[in-house]
Design brief:
The complex is a heterodimer of chains A (408) and B (388). Chain A is α+β, with helices and mostly antiparallel strands and 408 residues long. Chain A has 18 helices and eight strands. Chain A is 49% helix and 13% strand. Classes of the chains: A alpha+beta (408), B mainly alpha (388). The interface between A and B is medium-sized, with 30 and 27 residues.
């Protein structure tokens, strides 16, 4: 994977010929403050300049794809939490939609709207963390604390909705774990209103900060061609000027009903990726506010999908038909037709794809996850070569990856 | 009381002075570490350390809760923790140098304090006499000479750790500290050009600098920060770099070098580095105060002697001119300015990101150094012109 380092300037090369230096290998990670989890970079250094970079991944490999083959579709939902654990709600939604596409099942508008709101909230949560961690990587601690204050408010809302702050497991095939609580959408709306000025305040700490710009402008440039060649998606690709956004290109869960812009960068450096994330948060708030304004009523799960979504609990306890239905779904799993499907959703980190092969029954025959962090990290060997150690940290921060998803 | 002191054996005096330095600097540096945590907490909208409390103290009505919220007991708790923790000594280090490095880090800080005047008292004739442990005429030169030894501890720590991240930290430290010492030294030369008339015996004494800022008249009473703002700015920036404070904390930048030169250190050895950093900040702030902020003079164009003259006039109380009272008040003025400067150190640290290593070097060599030289030439010409 590694790319050999070559001096861009022939004069520099001539200078090194007479001044021979010894290369030093440096293992950055898997426990390093700014490798965001358990990424390990095997660096080769010439002084402070990185001449070779070998990412070593897999420290967090749990065999999620194999695990999926041994459990029913609904039982796998908690495992999707642990992919991109910064935005579990978005993963839950992507997985549920993938399986529903397999069953050719349409969920009601209310269910779609709830999923969409939670996914956008997850995007806010993820981008806030990405921003804060980027701040720490460049040395600005206070930004991290500011963003975590906001994330705490989001977590309170997640807890109210799903019962869990972190591993939400909210989606079910054909619906959700439960309906939104009384007044919850109002509280989300209130959060959005107070969040926007705070977001501006947070971004103001970095956007025109001379030191931050020195650290990020022109650092870790991903060209448009590279972004395509390496399969980079999400804000990282948009930072490089690729206007790819599945929410616009292949709308799902009702994204087509809402107005929002897709921010696109120009140069593809770390600073552009930062700007794109900042703007995406504003757009997410815009989407959430629209979705709440026309929040649909009606059922919150696919009522006619009797072999897929378990019936309400009060019916289970009173009616024979529903009791049997519940029993079958819990023991055998939601019944899927044979076939295969690939669905990808625009997650905070990029395109999260689920490829599900079914031979019928309640258990997937094969489930493959296309995780955005894995693909986004594939460009590291090319990106880090020729930069300083501090740049590597800034690049890692700007790529905003999650190892839970990369190693899965 | 004074007589008792002056009748003591000089060697005993020296020992007592040394102990006094340790007794003052150590708690002061500890308080700084607490202040750092509290200031950062206030800036980031958190309560900060507010848990530790001496068992029975929580029952003291208002004060107990207040001090707990203020976190003052964390000072004791942290100190005790560092003292009683296991002292890890990794197997791969060079033991002698590994242990020597933190001790060496403390030495310059403690030594420089002795030549820094920290207050003044008025003698019978109304003259202001500085309070300092060792009145050496080379003054600032001694501070620079000794404090530049501080870099050895960082290099030694990085080298003795025999590990890659500390090594990189040590290399960065050596390059950075040497580069910024140049501009720092050059930035204060105009001050001494100003106070030393040609043809007379010159001095580098810090007390003289303060005495110059206490002179009557517009030019005499002006602090050097007003007379030489550029010098002050260069000195302050270099001070940040010299004390390894963000945005110049290259040697330990925790984002890329884990902990830099102190990655392999733990327990009390680590805390010695920590205390040394704050001690350097305290001494550096002290020197900055003396050079540019008028030392112990309460306000610009208001010298300490005038202040106490007015105080005597307004209150009519005789104790206002008592040497002890004057001394304590002047030390309070001096420490007050240091505290403000320390707050600025912390304020900056929690506000701005960190430079990259090459940017630090570029700033030092390509911007600050030429600026310092230009500044020096300008003032040299200006002073020559004024004196002619």
């Amino acid at each position: 994977m590694a790319t050999e380092f070559s001096f861009p300037d022939p004069a520099a090369k001539a200078a090194t010929a007479e001044f021979e230096t010894e290369k030093m290998s440096l293992s950055m990670g898997p426990s390093h403050p700014s490798t965001h989890g358990v990424l390990r970079l095997q660096l080769e250094l010439d002084g402070e300049i990185v001449t070779k970079c070998d990412p070593v991944i897999g420290y967090l490999h749990r065999g999620d794809e194999k695990i999926a083959e041994n459990m029913t579709y609904n039982q796998f939902v908690p495992y999707t939490d642990r992919l991109d654990y910064i935005a579990p709600l978005a993963n839950n939604m992507a997985y549920a939609i993938a399986v529903e596409r397999l069953a050719k099942l349409e969920v009601p508008a209310r269910c779609q709207a709830i999923r969409l709101i939670t996914a956008e909230m997850a995007r806010l949560s993820s981008h806030l963390l990405g921003l804060g961690a980027f701040g720490i990587d460049t040395g600005a601690w206070t930004v991290f604390m500011y963003t975590f204050t906001e994330r705490e408010k989001l977590y309170k809302l997640f807890e109210e909705l799903t019962g869990a702050r972190f591993t939400t497991s909210y989606s079910r095939i054909g619906g959700l774990q439960r309906d939104v609580p009384e007044g919850w959408t109002g509280r989300v709306d209130a959060f959005c209103d107070q969040f926007l000025p705070i977001l501006e305040e947070i971004l103001a700490l970095l956007t025109r900060n001379k030191i931050f710009m020195d650290r990020t402008v022109g650092v870790g440039v991903i060209t448009k061609e590279d972004a395509i060649a390496y399969g980079i998606t999400g804000p990282n690709a948009r930072g490089s000027g690729l206007g790819l956004d599945l929410r616009k290109d292949k709308p799902y869960s009702g994204y087509e009903q809402y107005e929002f812009d897709v921010p696109v960068g120009t140069t593809g450096d770390s600073y552009d990726r930062y700007l794109v994330r900042g703007e995406e948060m504003r757009q997410s708030v815009r989407i959430i506010k629209q979705a709440i304004a026309k929040f649909p009523g009606g059922p919150w799960f696919a009522t006619e999908a009797r072999k897929i979504f378990a019936p309400p609990k009060d019916k289970v306890l009173t009616s024979m038909e529903e009791l049997i239905q519940n029993f079958m779904i819990v023991t055998e799993g939601p019944q899927m037709p044979a076939g295969e499907v690939y669905f990808e959703a625009e997650n905070p980190k990029g395109v999260l794809g689920f490829y599900v092969v079914s031979k019928g029954g309640g258990v997937p025959w094969r489930l493959k996850i296309r995780s955005p962090s894995f693909c986004n990290l594939s460009i590291l060997p090319k990106l880090c070569v020729g930069s300083l150690i501090s740049d590597v940290v800034a690049i890692l921060g700007s790529l905003d990856f999650v190892m839970g998803e990369c190693d899965r | 009381m004074f007589n008792l002191w002056f009748n003591l054996n000089p060697i005993l005096q020296g020992v007592l002075k040394g102990l006094a330095v340790i007794a003052v600097i150590f708690p002061f540096a500890g308080a700084c570490s607490l202040a750092e945590r509290k200031v950062s907490a206030w800036m980031q909208g958190r309560p900060g350390p507010n848990r530790a409390i001496v068992p029975w103290f929580a029952y003291v009505p208002v004060l107990g809760k207040f001090l707990q919220r203020l976190g003052v007991f964390h000072l004791i708790a942290d100190g005790a923790k560092f003292l009683f923790k296991e002292e890890p000594l990794p197997g791969h280090v060079n033991k002698l140098y590994f242990i020597l490095a933190p001790a060496l880090a403390m030495m310059p800080a403690f030594t420089t304090v002795t030549v820094v005047p920290f207050g003044a008292y008025l003698d019978g004739a109304g003259r202001t006499l500085p309070l300092m442990l060792a009145n050496v005429d080379v003054g600032l030169l001694a501070v620079f000479a000794v404090s530049s030894l501080g870099v050895y501890s960082l290099i030694l720590a990085g080298w003795a750790s025999n590990s890659k991240y500390p090594f990189l930290g040590g290399v960065r430290a050596s390059a950075q500290l040497i580069s910024y010492e140049l501009s720092m030294t050059l930035s204060v030369v105009p001050v001494f050009l100003w106070i030393n008339a040609p043809g007379t015996p010159g001095t580098m004494s810090l007390a003289k600098v303060v005495a110059f800022q206490s002179l009557p008249g517009f030019w005499g009473g002006a602090w050097f920060v007003f007379l030489m703002p550029l010098s002050a700015a260069i000195f302050l920036v270099s001070l940040f770099a010299e004390t390894n404070r963000q945005p110049f904390d290259m040697p330990e930048s925790e984002a890329d070098l884990v902990g830099g030169f102190h990655t392999e250190y733990g327990a009390f050895k680590w805390s010695l580095f920590f205390v040394a950093e704050y001690s350097h900040m305290i001494v550096g702030s002290g020197v900055f105060t003396l050079l540019f902020l008028g030392g112990w003079n309460p306000l610009p164009w208001l010298s300490l002697a005038d202040f106490f003259g007015w105080l005597r006039h307004l209150t009519g109380a005789a104790f206002t001119l008592h040497p002890l009272f004057v001394g304590v008040v002047s030390i309070a003025f001096f420490l007050g300015k240091i505290v403000v400067l320390l707050f600025i150190f912390m304020w900056v640290r929690w506000t701005v990101p960190r430079f990259r290593y090459d940017q630090v070097m570029k700033l030092g060599w390509q911007k600050l150094l030429p600026l310092a030289i230009a500044n020096l030439i300008f003032y040299a010409l200006a002073i020559a012109f004024i004196e002619r």
